[in-house]
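Notes continue from the previous slide.

Worked example: a multi-chain complex. Inputs as given:
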Amino acid sequence: MIRGSGLQKIYGKGSVEVRALDGVDLEIRKGEFVGVMGASGSGKSTLLHLLGLLDRPSAGTLVIDGVDVTKLSERERTLFRLNRLGYVFQDYALVPELTAEENIYLPSKVRGMTVKECTRACRDILSLVGLRERYNFLPGELSGGEQQRVAIARALVNNPALLLADEPCANLDSRNSVLILDLIRKLNRELKQTVVMVSHEDWHRQYFDRILYLQDGKIVPDPGV
Amino acid sequence: MLEEEQVALFLASRLISRGNKGTLLLTIMIIAMVFVNLIFLPSIIAGVVVLFNQQTIDYSYGNLVIEPRENTPVIGDATKLVQKINRVPGVVASTPRYAAGATVVYKGKSTTPLLIAIDPASEPEVLKVHTGIVSGDYLGEGDTGQILIGDTLAGSRELDVDRTPTLGGVEVGKMVDVTFRNGVTRQFRVKGIVDTGTAGSDSNAFIVRKDLMDVLGREDEASQILVRTRTTGDEDAMRILLMQYGVQEKIWTWEDKSADFLQSIVGSFGIINFISTVVSLVIAVVVIFIVIFISIVYRRKQIGILQAIGIDRRIIIKSYIFQALFICTCGTIAGCALLLALLQYLAVYPLVFPGGPVAPLLDTGLVVQSVASLFVVSLIAGYVPSWLTTREEILSAIRG
């Protein structure tokens, strides 16, 4: 599903050079729920940005779903993000002027679905995340947990090969965090959705099939095992 | 409609309808003001030019001016020529005039105005000087020994009020001494004071032509015959027609006669107008650009997120262009409404210029040009900032 080899991400130059990722090799199989953990500044988010095609590696190769994404043009990367990736941000990142349904509708419409197909897909996915009744609510009218569920629905609407979640529970209380983690776990189990999730919460470990532990930009054995 | 445009329109419509209404209204009002600014001053200038033109026709020249042939000082048999001219189709009326220099003295105050000898019967059919009587009466056909004095020439009794030599406040019924170029002096009774609002008429004195002919010892002569035609604007065609009807004298249009004066006015107004238009357009560009740029900078993170979830940058750019065009359309409509309200107001309370009230003259071409300019500006203002923001690294945009 994902194969990364010698992934490097270097910021700055010369004496101010920062190696956020320093030769990361990784392999994630289809249907896995992988947690990316590590201390602050260890390179967790940088790795997720590379996997989400939000950034380009300084060196190394990255193959996702059979495509060497390091060789894609900007437009191809955009299309790849639209069609094969779903990204869940820490702060939900919903468009505040769009309702829950419209936030989900947007990527599906861009993908070329008809309005009818889009609406059906939106309602289905909202039912899946338990927000069918709140389809017409603006993000500001939803709780943090509900907004994050909408964000997950938006990430899933195009049936992505890979769901990436960047600390999706960081802004949520423990009750909502459990709801979100349970939901992601359910999606992973029932839909065989491959998930890579960044987290720094130790209690999240129980949800992951496997953990990639990062330290100083390198994958090291998980000290929690 | 294409898929991309549909999504861009969807996004734009939601961002507008659910965005900050206050900011939206303010932006629309700014564009409305810019639109009014683009049109109002040129309209006033156009109104002033029309006023000057109309005054030139109504108080100085009529539509056409017939003058003596080459090497001939005056037009002889003026009445006969007037009758000939009046028979030409399209001519409403014509009137002979004889302009002469003279010195007018009243209570020791002396001045040398242009003394115009007129035929009081036909003159009102060509010019509107008679409508400007502010005191006394207009000259009648048999009013020999009587004089009509322009308001500026009559002057004021108060000291230091008059800027030009005047008769120091002469009034109706008073007698003035008029000394003609040939040295003959005669007394005239002031029959009326006329104020037309035009420098050309209000600085002159008018007597009946018969008086002047007596003084000069001539008969039925004129230095000019003024012609009023049925329509204004076809003077060149009328000139040719008069020639075809056998008028061999020199024929000028009112535009020919006032060319220097009008061209300098129109030229100066043209420069003011050009500067005003350029300044207004620059203001429009800057204001619309800043407003939309700020709106986009404010939504920089959102643009980054949209790109992150796979929305193509072209869709995002188009959505901002649609927003800019929507704002521009609303601003233009509001501007039109504002302009119409302003025109209504000025129709009731007109701007008073020397020479009369001025109504702004709306030029459709200018309105179209202004609307087009605003749309081009909005297009640029919507495109450039969104293009710049979407060219940024996605992560930089998301981090704000």
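Summary box: Strands of chain A lie at 2-11, 18-28, 33-38, 59-64, 67-68, 85-88, 162-166, 194-198, 210-215, 218-220. The two ends of chain A are 25 Å apart (CA to CA).
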